[in-house]
Amino acid sequence: MKKVDGLLEEHGRSKIEVYVDWENGNYVPKEVFEAMKPFYLEKGFANPAITHRLGWETYELYVETKEKLVQPLNISPQDFYITHGLTESNNIAIRGVAKANKKRKKIITSSVEHLSIIHSSRYMKSQGYKIEEIPVYSNGTIDLDSLQNMIDEETLLVSVQLANHEIGSIQPLREVIEIVKDKNKETLVHSDMSAAFGRMKINLNELEIDLATFDSSRVLGPKGIGGLYVKEGVHVKPLLEGQLSVETLSPGVEIMPLIAGFAKTIELEFENFDEKIKNLINLRNKLLYGLYTTIPKTLINGAEGEKRIADNVNLSFLGCEGEALTVECSMNGIYTSSGSACSSRILMPSHILTAIGRRPEEAHGSLLMKLSRLNTEEQIKYILETMPKVVSRLRKITGSIEL
Amino acid sequence: MKKVDGLLEEHGRSKIEVYVDWENGNYVPKEVFEAMKPFYLEKGFANPAITHRLGWETYELYVETKEKLVQPLNISPQDFYITHGLTESNNIAIRGVAKANKKRKKIITSSVEHLSIIHSSRYMKSQGYKIEEIPVYSNGTIDLDSLQNMIDEETLLVSVQLANHEIGSIQPLREVIEIVKDKNKETLVHSDMSAAFGRMKINLNELEIDLATFDSSRVLGPKGIGGLYVKEGVHVKPLLEGQLSVETLSPGVEIMPLIAGFAKTIELEFENFDEKIKNLINLRNKLLYGLYTTIPKTLINGAEGEKRIADNVNLSFLGCEGEALTVECSMNGIYTSSGSACSSRILMPSHILTAIGRRPEEAHGSLLMKLSRLNTEEQIKYILETMPKVVSRLRKITGSIEL
């Protein structure tokens, strides 16, 4: 890799900057930071399981904070378990469920899940489990008939995310649950809701789901904290071994500043929720269809309309390469990511774009822009003005496409 | 449990407050908080593995921060892996080493390890591993002859902490390594150094150890972040499954605010290190021997002199019960913990006090006070004045001891 200093110098810094890479990182709003501050400096820093004044105070603050945190989900705080984030939540949902329910040995997921689900399932395969992946249509939603055929007596768990984190397709979760419980009411249903929470209405009680994953950093909160909803009566075990405190699915003392930040960002997210979502969908449509209609040879990745989550813009610009796109965008102050194999040090091609049938040359030119409540109309305008120049320049350089 | 509100009201609040429960929770010094602040609000919030300006900037900040972080340990940043804290580090040290080295199936630990080591070993036992525990002397240090006899061809790993987190005994780690490598040079040695780091000199390079655990919150840093040192060439695998970013033993995006806080607290801890440790030992001795000599029927738990880590005060007040002690201390503004079974909602009796041969009635009256660089001479004086009254009142109530 080139020395970063040099890269940054050559690169310069755009006058206008627009951050639409909320999938991969976020700063926190000032109010969220202010909510964490006292827990770092002056209160709620004790172990809530310890019997002294500061322990009790911390316990009280913990209970209060957690009540606030689960309020928009309409569930009891007892059914929401704090974890270190979506990776741990998803690991527990697959492997912790298997650990606690040893009779049935088959797990069904979809082919477009987050890598923490895909890799957890592969791990279970190495432990003798049967793993099956539900195929998806070209819009990224799962094939319910395949699911129906996969469920059998042996099926322990079906894990299907609510909205895809990369291409935004919303899965028919209500139907998934109906099909599963109809065929084998013992089979548990888990959903990674981290890419859907805060972008659409979710009423867990009404859904009759068994487990669901949430993450603070996916709703502009601090990294390093998340949760797993577990319906009362569902058996699940922690994956890390150690000393439990008040929380029982992830050992160690409760991380109060992060829990408080998580609760605050949820409070902010759900203020005037309907209006916020309407606004987000409006911005998203302007950006998605604005780019699609003004830049030729462009494909929309993922579902459209009601089936697309409110914050997701993902397009493939044919004849462009992912890393070149993110760098050229960056030079223009637009921060995005790509599902291309070469667009990050991770060097992972997107299994999601492959699953929806994108050919390599289509996946290479993909660009993910995620919006948040912090993005504005002006920013969308700037992206719409800038991207045609970005794409056109790259296409000229590579000469790979006839325009 | 009694409603916490009521408890706090009855309880009142002492005019003088002394926090010596650093083992179980900590606020962070203002400088540590200030070091985290920009990473929450304005910089280094991107994914360091993503190819855009903010990703590269985050990567640079990450590299810089990590170099600072490992500086007092005299190791390369590449050999220090960031984790969510000591629980994850210890789990990886036992289970992640076993996952990556499948040939040998015996693990040796000591009987006084942190529960994350003890429970990780038990987990490996359930997977068919042979687990042996080195017994300890009454001062809490391990029996090296027993260790010598335990090591065989099958031994994958020996895990012995550097200093005990509860009774402060420092283990003869140099001898442990010599004995192990002498008998089987393939056997790996891990040490949980979380209770020793920042309280004594540690030069990992010189020690020739294979793996070592560290935790930010044990040196007044933020919770939720820690590390595992892994000597170059030693094989180990992550335990959580998911998408790796720059760090490779714990999947997920790097949590820069916490990494920055961890680095800052280490910088502060190691300023004028020798003087700080001298001062800590001085305060510790005043408190430990002050209480021991002025309160009758008191036992010192753990080793003394050079063999006791600088911050640890642990005594058993015969005829007292742990929960009553922590509550009565709390009423007087002194915040401590106890190894007694009833002193926390965890309801775990201390396996450590049992291992050093304390009878139940001795373990019940145990009180742990941990000091930090934030404690003062005046605070020690206050504790020394107050504790005789606390113990005497409790002994009168229970009438369990002849004074």
Describe the protein in words.
The structure is a homodimer of 403-residue chains. In chain A, helix 2 (30-41) runs antiparallel to helix 9. In chain A, 41% of the residues lie in helices and 13% in strands. The model of chain A has no long low-confidence stretch (mean pLDDT 94). Chain A has 2 domains: 4-22 and 272-398, Aspartate Aminotransferase, domain 1 (Alpha-Beta Complex), CATH 3.90.1150; 73-254, Aspartate Aminotransferase, domain 2. The first copy, chain A, is of the alpha/beta class and 403 residues long. In chain A, the strands form 3 sheets. Chain A has a 7-stranded mixed β-sheet with strand order 2-8-7-6-5-3-4, sandwiched between helices. Chain A is built from 14 helices and 12 strands. The interface between A and B is large, with 85 and 85 residues. Chains A, B: Residues 20-381 form the Aminotransferase class V domain. Chains A, B: Belongs to the class-V pyridoxal-phosphate-dependent aminotransferase family. NifS/IscS subfamily. Chains A, B: Pfam families: Aminotran_5 (PF00266). Chains A, B: Keywords: Iron, Iron-sulfur, Metal-binding, Pyridoxal phosphate, Transferase. Chains A, B: This is Cysteine desulfurase.
